Amino acid sequence: MEEAAGIKEVIGGHEEKVVKEEIFTKVVRAGKRTYFFDVKATRKDDYYLTITESKKRLGKEGKVYYEKHKIFLYKEDFEKFADGLKDAVEYIGNEKNDTTGSVQSAENDNGTEKPALASVEFTSIEFDDLGEK
User: Fold this and answer.
1) Structural domain contains residue 101
2) Using one digit for the tens of pLDDT, what is the confidence trace for 97-132?
3) What is the model's pTM?
4) 83 assigned to some structural domain
5) Are 50 and 73 in contact (CB under 8 A)?
6) Which helix (H) or strand (E) holds 72?
7) DSSP assignment, residue 19?
8) Quick check: 32 and 111 in contact, CB under 8 A?
């Protein structure tokens, strides 16, 4: 049997379980990150949005995993959220590309952040005293 908020499954002939069904999904691949915009329904059939950022990472034993961050955005907050996002994006777009005083970072191939070259400090190493005790 289908419902607007999900699909009912009969388990053991008696019990029913509601499985959530996604109403709409948009996947945006942006560099090393993937964003998922999923429209879902509450039990009362109100829609809400989940925004998930997913980044591929490399674990300690070399095993790949995905680090995820999620935002749940409810219908009553859509307008204020959209206004805030628009303002922040416009602010960034209007700012000059002045890199002085700012620290930028990039990601290594394994997904861990590495500092930008401008912020890396180097230490002088003297090899003259290596063989002496």
Assistant:
1) no
2) 554 444 444 555 555 555 544 444 544 444 454 455
3) 0.56
4) no
5) yes
6) strand 64-74
7) E
8) yes
